[in-house]
Write a structure and sequence with these properties.
Blueprint: H1 7-22, H2 32-43, E1 57-59, E2 62-64, H3 66-85, H4 94-117, H5 126-133, H6 138-147, H7 154-177, H8 184-205, H9 211-221, H10 227-246, H11 250-262, H12 267-296, H13 300-304, H14 306-324, H15 339-346, H16 351-363, H17 368-393
Antiparallel strand pairs: 1-2
Helix pairs in contact: 1-2, 1-12, 2-12, 3-7, 3-11, 3-12, 4-5, 4-7, 4-14, 5-16, 7-11, 8-10, 8-11, 10-11, 14-15, 14-17, 15-17, 16-17
């Protein structure tokens, strides 16, 4: 069977298999996104060759592959969910201040590291490399912290704050850095449209909710029309398209849509709505991006470049060093036994590394070998760092300080 002819079925089979593999009882649990990339690599052109995600039809004058088109939608959904998950209220005060200061430290160290890496001939796009090094894959270890009952401790709150900032600031920085130039009048008109749409969304989120509209949305949330869900998808892709037309990366619009929508989904109705959005994004759209990323990962780089293989452990060490160095700011806020686990959790990176390197390869001339090495290091960080952190913390859980001890400015 030609899997190229059935991209949706192929990705759904891989996503289902990945979810099942992620549930295998094991001390070292492998997240579903890692399995999606591994299985994508397995069926892709560099290994078994069952799938070749190449252009199959023409859109806007360019050859666009079905896998590529769906992967772009998955990338937008990934950043949308990142915006939806951003809960700065939960970590306000000192944890948030420390997280922002710590990310600034990480960025400075990452810029120095990326500048030094330019000594290697094929290393380009140092700013994008630096931004990728400052990311934290909070979603990959959140379930572990939740199951261990650590989210409501001082340690858990600080990790959440560092993770939120490690997702938010790299996304914003990467998207703004990738701004493109468009004709000034187009930019002005599109920017006004973007601001108007954002203003309407914010007004609705902050309280402008006509009773008739609220009643309609509440009723249709349980009906076959699913109007709130459809409106959300329209907002998601409208923001993505508008931001792209303005000259920004589409991911910034998707991320903004998620942040705005979060303001409006509170209470019982919001919980039900969130479940539906989670199902659509994580169960359908987002797997396309990670499976496609695995298929297109340049594994040939490792066959022809010893440097690409050498860079994997180097980037793995840099993830830990760049995001772990800010532990020096937490000497008065974390117990001695929590410092190394905090660094390990903060240094865990994958989803945003895949996203940022993908953007950099297509728009900033990042060498595919570098992208492959960084993604490989990100996979190893997800496999190794949370497990090591959990093993170290297992001795300290009974003595962890409660959440109330850390709140305040």
């Amino acid at each position: 069977m030609d899997l190229n002819a059935y991209p949706i079925l192929t990705v759904l089979i891989i996503a289902t298999a990945s979810s099942m593999l992620a549930e295998i009882p094991s001390r070292f649990r492998v997240p579903a996104v890692v399995w999606e990339m591994i299985l994508g690599m397995l069926v892709g052109p560099h290994l078994l060759g069952f799938v070749h995600p190449i252009g199959r039809f023409t859109m806007f004058g360019e050859r666009v592959g079905t896998y590529t088109l769906l992967a772009e939608r998955g990338l937008a959904a990934l950043f949308f969910m990142a915006g939806l998950d951003l809960d700065l209220k939960r970590v306000r005060g000192r944890p948030l201040q420390l997280a922002i200061t710590g990310w600034a430290v990480s960025l400075g160290v990452a810029l120095i590291a990326a500048t030094l890496l330019r000594m290697i001939p094929f290393v380009h796009a140092p700013l994008m490399i630096a931004l990728a090094l400052t990311t934290t894959a909070m979603g990959t270890f959140m379930p572990t912290l939740h199951d261990a009952g650590m989210l409501k401790t001082n340690f858990g709150t600080n990790v959440l704050a560092a993770g939120a900032v490690g997702e938010f600031l790299p996304i914003i920085s990467a998207a703004l850095f990738m701004t493109r130039e468009v004709p000034v009048w187009n930019e002005v008109l599109l920017m006004l449209g973007f601001v108007a749409l954002a203003g309407v969304a914010v007004a609705i989120a902050l309280g402008f909710r006509p009773p008739g509209a609220v009643k309609l949305l509440s009723r249709t949330l349980r009906s076959s029309s699913q109007l709130p869900v459809l409106l959300t998808l329209v907002i998601l892709f409208s923001f993505a398209v508008l931001s792209q037309k303005i000259g920004l990366e589409s991911v910034l619009g998707a991320f903004s849509a998620g942040m705005i929508l979060r303001l409006a989904i509170e209470g019982e109705q919001g919980a039900m709505f969130r479940e539906k959005i989670d199902a659509i994004c994580f169960g359908f759209l987002i797997p396309f991006f990670f499976v496609w990323s695995g298929m297109t990962l340049d594994l040939d780089a490792f066959r022809h470049s010893a440097a690409a293989i050498f860079l994997i452990p180097l980037f793995l060490a840099l993830f830990l060093f760049v995001r772990g160095l800010p532990i020096i700011l937490y000497r008065k806020d974390l117990a001695k036994g929590e410092m190394v686990p905090f660094a390990l959790y903060s240094g865990t990176a994958l989803p945003l590394v895949v996203a940022i390197t993908n953007i950099a390869v297509t728009g900033e001339g990042m060498n595919p070998e570098i992208a492959t090495s960084m993604v490989g290091a990100g996979v190893l960080s997800v496999l190794l760092f949370p497990a090591a952190a959990q093993a170290l913390l297992s001795r300290n859980i009974p003595t962890m300080a409660p959440l109330k001890d850390l709140q305040g400015v």
